[in-house]
Structure formats: structure tokens, C-alpha cells
Design brief:
Layout (H helix, E strand, L loop, with lengths): L4 E7 L3 H9 L8 E6 L6 H6 L6 E5 L5 H16 L5 E6 L2 E3 L3 H6 L7 E9 L19 H10 L17 E3 L7 E4 H5 L15 H11 L3 E12 L15 H18 L3 H14 L6 H20 L6 H7 L7
Parallel strand pairs: 1-2, 1-4, 2-3, 6-9
Antiparallel strand pairs: 4-8, 5-9, 6-8, 7-9
Helix pairs in contact: 7-8, 8-9, 8-10
GO molecular function, one term: glycosyltransferase activity
Protein name: Glycosyltransferase
Keywords: Glycosyltransferase, Transferase
Length: 324
């Protein structure tokens, strides 16, 4: 009997992208398609209410909880309210599965020690989406450790050749775009739910490292293909606009580094924090003062593990003054 697969999609004020995502998702064979609407104000709720799709479930949050909060609620719903479902796959509203994803998933032989799968994620023009490239934790693998020291992220992320593998490839983490999770691990408390307080960014890698530390394997499966029409990064560089995204990126990366590196964490701080500030060179002159202030707040809160700032506060101190 095929495994019952639930799709969990988080959306916020991107109705046109959500339309595209659901055009590629509804009717493909998912047991349920759970859309978590983070209190969108662009007509998303009305449009979703008008859809006629028996597999569609809409959960509307009272406020914007970010991707992490949205996935937290979607995972929780799938685990508690859909007890007959065995797996979920999650993605953002600007991403969507290719037409044969459900069939490809059902054809897999997945042993019980494998707790999660990562899809191959591409940009609309066919290039590999760098922000969604799976990775191995360099602090758990000697080859990747030295690779990271010599080649940076290229030393511990999977290579282009892995995208052409006919077999699954072992990895430690991938993004929440096309990430498949075995639901019994959520129900039984083996890995729990994504950390809602992170709001956005790094919640996916942190979650999968938790799964790996619990003793389960993570596979990268090239035949499971997703498209990510992402406009956050500039030319796939580590540049984020609007600048409020800088705060969550750097604050949450420090938590990720703490979990991934263990005893090496103090050394990682010495290496990574200057790199955060040096990224100022990629921004326009009128953005640089704000970027440096936002980065300083992110580093301070990340080191102290302070996740109490509201999104409204982050928006306030990340606002760039208009050019004269």
C-alpha cells in the first residue's frame, strides 16, 4: 500500500506565487495539502476559501509567525489530526513539486532508520538553488571538516554530481523546500516540532540536525525534484533584502553553529562574526549603516540566545531611510 504523504505549505502575502505552488500540488496525489496562512492581507484567505479541492486543508494563523512558526503548526496538525498519514513534505509558497514527485516518492524503498529525505531543488531557469543545497555537518565528518577549512561551504555541501546520482545520497541536512519527514518521529517525540521562536531561517537545518542526533538517517534523493522561485538572495550571494531578513539570518546561524560545532563553538564565533560584518560590502552605500546596526543586534541576541524580539520590533530597527 502506498505511504500517505501530506504536503505542508506555508504562505504569507504572496498570492500569485501560492497560486502557482498549488497549481503544481493539488491533484498530484497528496493525501492532504495543508496550507498554513500566516495572516495574509492580500486576498489569500478569500482565494483559498474558493478552491474546490477535497485534499485541501487551510489553517489560518492570527498573526504572522514566520516560516518556522508556520511549519511548527503545519507539522503539529499533520501529526495529531492525520494519524493515518505516514510522511509529510514541506515547502514555501514560492516553491512547488515537479509533476511526478508523489509517484517517485511512492516508488522508493525507505528503510526504517531513514527519518527524512531531501529533494533536489532548482531555480526556475534550471540551475541548482544554492540556498537549498543539502550538506553534511563538517564537525561530524573528517573529510568535510578539512573541506570546509579549505573550500568554505563548497567543502561540506553536496556537489553537482550528487544531483545526477541514481541512488540516494547520505547527508545531514537540507532545507524545508522539498523536505520529507517521517511523521511517527514527530508523534512519538523523537524529534518534535520545528522551533517556532526562530521565525525564519536555519530552523530547517537545526531541525534535521536534531533528527540526525536522534540516530536517524537523512537521504538526499535526486529524483525528487522541486522548483524554488526565490527572490531573497541576490545572484545567489549571501545578500538579503529587505534588511530585516539579515537579523534572522545571522541570529539563527549562531544557534545553528552552536548545535553543529559543539566544543568548537567559541572558535566558530571568532571566525564567523567578522564575516557577517564584512558582508556589508555587498550592499548599497545607503543601506550599509542599517546593515551594520542590524547585524550587531543579531550577533548580540544570537550569542545570548535571545529570541524574544517581536517581528514588529525587527521591522522597526531594520528600516532603511529613504535616499535624499
Amino acid at each position: 500500500m502506498p505511504e500517505k504523504l501530506v504536503a505542508v505549505v506555508v504562505t504569507f502575502n504572496r498570492l500569485e506565487k501560492l497560486r502557482t505552488a498549488l497549481e503544481h500540488t493539488l491533484g498530484q496525489g497528496f493525501y492532504r495539502v495543508v496550507v498554513v496562512d500566516n495572516c495574509s492581507t492580500d486576498g489569500t484567505a478569500d482565494w483559498l476559501a474558493g478552491l474546490q479541492a477535497p485534499e485541501l486543508v487551510v489553517l489560518r494563523n492570527a498573526r504572522n509567525l514566520g516560516g518556522a512558526g508556520g511549519f511548527h503548526r503545519g507539522f503539529d496538525y499533520a501529526a495529531r489530526e492525520l494519524p493515518e498519514a505516514q510522511w509529510l513534505v514541506c515547502f514555501d509558497d514560492d516553491a512547488y513539486p515537479e509533476a511526478d514527485v508523489v509517484a517517485q516518492f511512492e516508488a522508493l524503498q525507505i528503510p526504517p532508520q531513514v527519518g527524512s529525505l531531501g529533494a533536489a531543488v532548482y531555480l526556475p531557469d534550471g540551475r541548482i538553488s544554492e540556498m537549498n543545497r543539502p550538506s553534511r555537518n563538517p564537525f561530524w565528518h573528517l573529510r568535510e571538516f578539512f573541506g570546509a577549512a579549505g573550500r568554505g561551504r563548497h567543502g561540506f555541501h553536496l556537489g553537482d554530481g550528487d544531483y545526477h546520482s541514481a541512488q540516494p545520497v547520505s547527508a545531514d541536512a537540507s532545507s524545508f523546500v522539498g523536505c520529507f519527514i517521517r511523521l511517527d518521529l514527530v508523534r512519538e517525540g523523537a524529534i518534535g516540532l520545528p522551533r517556532a521562536e526562530l521565525f525564519i531561517y536555519a530552523d530547517d537545518i537545526i531541525y534535521l540536525l536534531q533528527l540526525r542526533r536522534a540516530g536517524f538517517q537523512h537521504w538526499f534523493v535526486p529524483n525528487l525534484r522541486f522548483v524554488h522561485d526565490c527572490a531573497t538572495l541576490v545572484n545567489q550571494l549571501d545578500v538579503y533584502r529587505p534588511l530585516w531578513k539579515v537579523y534572522y539570518t545571522y541570529r539563527n546561524r549562531l544557534e545553528l553553529y552552536r548545535i553543529a560545532s559543539g566544543w568548537f563553538y567559541p572558535l566558530i564565533l571568532l571566525v564567523k562574526i567578522p564575516g557577517f560584518f564584512l558582508s556589508v560590502r555587498h550592499y548599497e552605500p545607503h543601506e550599509r549603516g542599517t546593515f551594520l546596526r542590524v547585524t550587531a543586534r543579531a550577533v548580540w541576541d544570537g550569542v545570548l540566545r535571545n529570541y524574544r524580539k517581536t517581528h514588529e520590533q525587527v521591522l522597526g530597527f531594520s528600516r532603511v531611510e529613504a535616499q535624499p
